[in-house]
Write a structure and sequence with these properties.
By secondary structure, this protein is an alpha+beta fold. It contains four helices and four strands; from the N terminus they run βαβαααββ. Helices cover about 35% and strands about 35% of the residues.
């Protein structure tokens, strides 16, 4: 088993519960850690026997483009799509941060974290 991770992905998207958040948009950060068995890839040096993190980034980008009220919903869509695309994934941990959330106080970021084991 091994881990494949993307840290510090950044997107501008239109998620939020208020209409204003969905109109104005905000900056988001995503970290994802995927557990998979890439033993064959490490021996054979073949991309087909591991998780292509370029495809992971594309899946995340596609889901970030779809506005949602809740980051929890965005995170669930991302994990569902990753599990459906890569059958070798056994575990996903994803953190989605909203920078400068509109909460009436100075706040660097708010985040949700989803941790799903499908082994």
């Amino acid at each position: 088993m091994g881990k494949i991770a993307l840290e510090g992905l950044e997107f501008f998207a239109y998620h939020g519960y208020s209409n204003e958040e969905q109109k104005v948009g905000n900056r988001y950060g995503i970290d994802v850690v995927i557990d998979t068995n890439f033993e064959l890839a490490s021996v054979n040096d073949t991309l087909e026997q591991t998780i292509d993190y370029t495809k992971v980034a594309v899946i995340i980008e596609e889901q970030m483009k779809l506005p949602s009220h809740l980051l929890e919903h965005v995170g669930q869509r991302i994990t569902d799509n990753l599990f459906a695309t890569f059958s070798s994934i056994t575990h996903i941990k994803i953190k989605i941060s909203k920078y400068n959330p509109p909460i009436g106080h100075l706040c660097q970021r708010a985040f949700i974290e989803i941790d799903i084991d499908r082994s």
